[in-house]
UniProtKB/TrEMBL annotation:
Catalytic reactions on record: L-glutamine + H2O = L-glutamate + NH4(+)
Protein name per Swiss-Prot or TrEMBL: Glutaminase
Residues involved in substrate binding: 63, 113, 157, 164, 188, 240, 258
Gene: glsA
An example Gene Ontology molecular-function term: glutaminase activity
EC number: 3.5.1.2
Protein family: Belongs to the glutaminase family.
Keyword vocabulary terms for this entry: Acetylation, Hydrolase
UniProt xrefs under InterPro entries: Beta-lactam/transpept-like, Glutaminase
Domain of life assignment: Bacteria
Subunit structure: Homotetramer.
Length: 304
């Protein structure tokens, strides 16, 4: 299959959508990003890469970070993580407070904000230096050292992160947050503000496509059972209240972020990453989602 040609065709087909989405501006620092950017990067398990567009430019990975947070935490704490966070799709926006009240402070899943905030709390309780440990983990997955948090984005989010603050406080009132509320929020914002390129994200996600094992160094990051579970959560909860639509149109497990990135995998075959900052109403990249739909359609690949 001529993947390069397919990516080039897809680029032409999604170009009209690239400036139609809305850049996330509830984090003011993210509103400065040029919404005309577009990149798509495919990395196969047999180490071939195909790319079109702005694939070497760093962007804010935002919620895509939640996959790394969960993987690192379950690799240390195992199944008990799921005592404090459920694994059901929420069907609600990523920052909704509604279910939390009804469900006694137990978040629906680790990929909505409340779930990732609980995971952050677990990391603070379990790691001597969670900040350093997390960065080291992500750098290791990518195979490269220059992965950093953007402190300006984290500060901008902190300044406007009232809903996230409300969530941590609500969960703390139910006894599901052990640490200081501000400490949890600060660390969570830093994790979301990590910047990576499409190419770097594709390398990190290729480890998940390879069942949690490094492709070059064969290091085992998570067990086979943890791989199965993380992939299932990506499939059912990776796209806010549009997870069903993503499964329906694209048919790959993955995770999106409000920075406009989407990372997806076809286990045993490839990782694929798109970046286009304009978002649809549900907070997923408009052109990115279309590009992935076209990719799985044109290549006839999906998990189904
Ligand atoms: N840091 C963002 C927030 O908490 C992440 C949102 C996202 O990418 O879904 O609102």
């Amino acid at each position: 299959m001529d993947y390069q040609k397919i990516l080039e065709e897809i680029h032409q087909e999604v170009l009209p959508l690239v400036d139609k989405g809305k850049v996330a501006d509830y984090i003011p620092e993210l509103a400065n990003v040029d919404r005309n950017k577009f990149g798509i990067y495919l990395l196969t398990l047999d180490d071939n890469a195909y790319a079109v567009g702005d694939v070497l430019e760093k962007f804010s990975i935002q919620s895509i970070s939640k996959v790394f947070m969960l993987a690192l935490t379950i690799s240390h704490l195992g199944e008990k993580v799921y005592d404090r966070v459920d694994v059901e799709p929420s069907g609600d926006p990523f920052n909704s407070l509604v279910q939390l009240e009804h469900e006694s402070g137990i978040p629906r899943n680790p990929f909505i904000n409340s779930g990732a905030l609980v995971i952050t709390d677990m990391m603070i309780s379990s790691f001597a230096d969670p900040r350093a440990e997390f960065l080291e983990y992500v750098r290791d997955l990518v195979g490269q050292a220059d992965v950093f948090c953007n402190k300006k984005v984290a500060a901008s989010e902190k300044e406007h992160g009232f809903k996230n603050a409300a969530m941590v406080n609500l969960m703390k009132s139910f006894g599901n947050i052990e640490n200081d509320v501000d400490e949890v929020l600060d660390l969570y914002f830093e994790f979301c503000s990590i910047e990576m390129t499409c190419s770097e994200l594709a390398r990190a996600f290729r480890v998940f496509a390879n069942h949690g094992r490094g492709v070059i160094d064969t290091k085992k990051y998570i067990t086979e059972s943890q791989f199965k579970r993380i992939t299932a959560i990506m499939q059912t909860c990776g796209f806010y209240d549009e997870a069903g639509e993503f499964a329906f149109r694209v048919g790959l497990p993955g995770k999106s972020g409000v920075g406009g990135g989407i990372a997806a995998i076809l286990p045993d075959k490839y990782s694929i990453v798109t970046w286009s900052p304009g978002l649809n109403k549900k907070g997923n990249s408009l052109a990115g989602m279309k590009a992935l739909e076209l990719f799985t359609t044109k290549t006839g690949t999906s998990i189904f």
